[in-house]
Design goal:
By secondary structure, this protein is of the alpha+beta class. It is built from eight helices and 15 strands. The protein has helices at residues 29-40, 75-78, 153-159, 224-229, 234-243, 276-291, 294-300, 313-356, and strands at 19-22, 44-48, 52-59, 62-69, 83-85, 89-92, 98-106, 109-115, 120-123, 141-144, 149-151, 162-168, 173-176, 200-207, 257-262. Strands 1-2-15-14-12 form a five-stranded mixed beta sheet, with helices on both faces. Strands 3-4 form a two-stranded antiparallel sheet. β7 and β8 (109-115) form a beta hairpin.
Length: 357
Amino acid sequence: VNRIALTRDDPIPNKAKILLLLNPGKLSDRQRYEINRYLYQGGTVVLAAQGYKFTFAHQLTGIEAVPQKQDLEINKLIEKWGVKINEDVLLDERSQVISLTSGQRIGPFAIEMPVKLPNQIIVREDTINRSAPITNRLPSLAYLWGSALDLAENVMKEKGIQSTVLFTSSEKSWITPNNGTNLSEANTQPTIKEFKGKFPLALEMEGQFTDTFNGAPPAWPGTKAAEAAQGEGAQASTTVKESAPAEPKKMDNAKPGRLLVVGCSQAFSEDLIQNPGNLNLFANIIDGLVLGEDLIKIRAKTGFVRDIKSLSNAEKVWFKFFTVALIPIILFLAALGRLFIRKKEKEFYLAALTGKS
């Protein structure tokens, strides 16, 4: 495993089996070209990126999530194949609690404050594609601050690319634009009309990826060729052509490639990768795309943690009624029934004695 800068001096190795783009951020035209060429020549790319990350701030009204807009320049490339990372905020009623340090202490112990906002998404088993080897028997996973994927199936069909959705958000999820406003419990309460889920969150694509540049590669940033391309004069451009190393005029050696897009780079961060679902997903992606699906099938035979199904408020009230009130009521009615039967038995017995006498 090698970390690369994806620059002229540190390009994609010729024999690389897989390229991981985790939160790629800003990308130059030449970097997107190199990614395109790698896929065009049969490479395998795993892309994980999201529209927002958040920090937390203590306000008078409580804890608020402060949005930090992320660069999604990779969309300029992948949207030409029919997939795009949505740039709005994804919210889902299936969310998890994050414990924050309040800053207060009791002796040596710091007081933690639980925070639950609908952008702290958790993907449960019922929205995971069990027919796909990568996600077969995968437990629930944390999809912290992740984004939805926009799919253009007509574009994928036109390009001849096969696609498989690996997992989605829940039915009670929605997307909202953000202009820098903090997220709080007050402004993240949805209406039924806002629910537009299920949104695709991870997509596996396979096929012959096209050359989206249709010509000579762009110049590397910082070179004289790049400066000439920005309009520094015809003389500079002529000088560059004479001194710059030869570049391939177009992509060659076309082979089918594979692209896996996940709308959440935070899912593979150092903290969340410790979650069993996130760790298994990452391991399955690497094993399945590099070594084949046989190894995944072996891992899929092991047991995994099953989360308790989340309940609606109505279901919670019913179970509380069942355990607190319904059982005593049933026992009381059973006792009344038993008392009535014993009374009848006594009457029959006395009537029988009277008849004999």
